[in-house]
Predict the structure.
Amino acid sequence: SRHFNVLAIESSADDTCAAVVNSSRRILANVVIKQHAVHEEFGGIYPMSAINSHQQNMPYAIRRALDDSRLDIVKDIDGIAFTRGPGMPGCLSVGMNAAKSLAAALKKPLIGVHHMQGHALTSTLTSWPNEPKYPFLTLLISGGHTLLLLAKSNRLFEILATTRDESVGRTFDKVSKLLGLKWTNLGPGDALEKFCAEEIEVDHPSVPPFPRPLHGQLSYSFSAFHSHVTNFMNEHGGHEKVDILTRRALARAFQTAAVGHLEEKLILGIDLCKSKNIHIADIVVSGGVASNQYLRKRLVSCLAEYDRHTSYHLSFPPPHLCTDNAVMIAWASMHRFLANESDPYSIELRPKWSI
Ligand code: KG4
Ligand code: ZN
């Protein structure tokens, strides 16, 4: 088949990303410029500062991706892809305008990609040659997403479940903060996991049991876990007053409940597919929270227990391709470029875009 090089741009949230990927599944460049300072200062993404950072960083991200790839944009790049949505409109437009201008100036075909399709298709790139076979399930758990997706083909996706309130990643972050934990270099969620894993005490201080929100329903909710921790800490005078053993018991109970919640919904999702006669063999778990080792172990054993006759193949793409990146955007555009499809240069953003 034809050899094709894609330059892709992603700017839907707070990371400014550019990448070059070819049709032989080689990643020739993967540049991600993060906005750490913004995150740490406000504990969230502030639209105006995110837009400003994209505007400052985008030219460098693109230049570096091309340098890393050792390709020439005029001679070697065959198509330009960008994230069309969903995401923050101001952020998306920085990436879209860069992509459009390059494509129009250089007379290259242009394709606008759905951000979630990018995440959902990542494993078909990274797990080669044992990539998941359609239909497969993707559990996307990060700071930005809490989603259970059914990938039916490279063009057909269905959201089986999403969160009604907070994302699972942000909930780990907030609970970590409430417990007064110091960040590890991998952030507050990782700090919480490490804190839970510290030595086992003989004496387990008791903490009130966590709620089971939306039990039996194929939908996520994390705000009740968050308020459970908030209430306990407030009633006991904040993290400076609560002894470390109690804080650790609370952290563990939170992590157990949060992972239990994800587990329950995954099983409900598999049940739903079964009831519709959709045979699932592969389950891909991705996003920042998927790096949690406790979660990985629980999902493995829960699936093994769930159905002793079916063996599910559980996979985790490498962490740097689970978080937002432009490699996944390039890859999600590839099958369309290879089918000679392209979008008009007048294409518009879809900040709210169901999959
Ligand atoms: O995919 P990601 O890196 O980017 C965004 O969504 O922005 O996900 C980051 C999220 C954060 O909320 C972080 O605390 C969480 O993933 N996270 C973890 C762990 N490592 C990162 N949560 C639980 N356990 C971990 N080990
Ligand atoms: Zn994302």
The pocket of KG4 (ligand 1) is lined by residues 142-144, 169-170, 172-173, 186-190, 193, 287-289, 291-292, 322-323 (CB under 6 Å).
